[in-house]
Amino acid sequence: MSCILVTGGAGFIGSHTSLLLLERGYEIFIIDSFINSSRKSLERIKTIRKLSNSDFNEKLHIYEGDLRNKNSIKKIFEDAKYMKKKIEGVIHFAGLKAVGESVLNPIKYWDFNLNSTINLLEVMDNFSCNKIVFSSSATIYGIGNEFNLSEDTLISPINPYGKTKAAIEEFLMDIFNNPKGNWAIANLRYFNPIGAHPSGLIGENPMGIPNNIFPFITQVALGKFKELNIFGSDWPTPDGTCIRDYIHVMDLAEGHICAMEKLNNFESKIFNINLGTGQGTSVLELVKIFENINKVKVPFAFTDRRKGDYPIVVANNELAKQELDWLPKRNIEDMCRDGWNWQFNNPNGFDF
Ligand code: UFG
């Protein structure tokens, strides 16, 4: 397998995975609408490749397009064919991902996330490209009192964003079950990706006020916000703040490549796999570790609990270790250091 299509390849996880694919010698086609990402992330990928004196130009093909327009996907497969290349697999990141926005605008989420995936699978099928790694999420789990979530935890998402991810997994299951038995599919259920490439040249670039905790912390540390609001101090956890499974974006990127390489061994296969470290960190611990490793202050104040939060969300990642031969290599200190290195050197993200 040498040629891969990456949808949403300019986004946070997409850009780190694309860089890694290039480093591993893959030829990649990236399609991105750039509505929630920056073209500059791809320029930065080129810079990182140049810094390591690597030849990349003929191995990176960039397309601007919306997957809801089937022709934009078809064009890439046709171009590849014209270049006498065969796209053998797809890593599908493209999609909308803000939980709050999905509650306010469910039509937009179902339209973007489902229609784009249906188009993608149809075009893939037409071009006999039958291997896909899908960017799913731990948000699909119906979390009760289980603190160590395995892949057979009940699927019961509580917001439209999570519902679209669960629906796509179901759709992919139907595709997998078709009588031809010709699809190999990996649904990767991410926990909380943070951190950045150690170069500090690419990283998370949220538009507007960040929804997630880590970019909020880095922006408080920069002085863009006065303080971090910690949502709740009375959760049933040792220090009263919520516990999450933070995973370094580089480990996550490696997980995608392991998954794609694994699929390559099969004509027909489906995996649902958690990508998390299996280690829980509370909000207060995260703030303290961030302050200590980076020698910066992150003022905070406790506020009310956020609706829809759970006290503890931590992955059971045994299946990833067994099936993908994947192990997270970076710890929470690495995540805090690399994430701050990116933010400090790029206070406005890619909009310098
Ligand atoms: N939090 C704060 N203050 C903030 C933001 C968050 O205290 O300003 C807390 C939240 O209450 C939560 C923790 O920090 O306890 C993590 O919150 P995030 O919003 O960063 O992440 P979530 O765990 O809520 O959700 C994230 C992604 C989802 C994904 C899920 C998987 O946003 O898309 O992880 O577990 F599905």
Describe this structure in words.
There is one protein chain. The chain is α/β, with parallel strands linked by helices. It has a single domain (3-345), classed as NAD(P)-binding Rossmann-like Domain (Rossmann fold), CATH 3.40.50. It contains 11 helices and 14 strands. It has helices at residues 12-23, 40-51, 70-82, 99-104, 106-126, 160-176, 213-222, 249-263, 283-294, 318-324, 332-345, and strands at 3-7, 27-32, 60-64, 89-92, 131-137, 184-190, 192-194, 228-231, 243-244, 246-248, 269-275, 281-282, 300-303, 312-313. Strands 3-2-1-4-5-6-11 form a 7-stranded parallel sheet, with helices on both faces. Strand 1 (3-7), helix 1 (12-23) and strand 2 (27-32) form a beta-alpha-beta unit. Helix 5 (106-126) packs parallel to helix 6 (160-176). It is globular, with a radius of gyration of 20 Å. The protein starts with a strand and ends in a 7-residue tail after the last helix. The mean pLDDT is 95. Uridine-5'-diphosphate-4-deoxy-4-fluoro-alpha-D-galactose binds at residues 97, 99, 137-139, 191-192, 211-213, 216, 228-231, 242, 244, 283, 306, 309, 313.
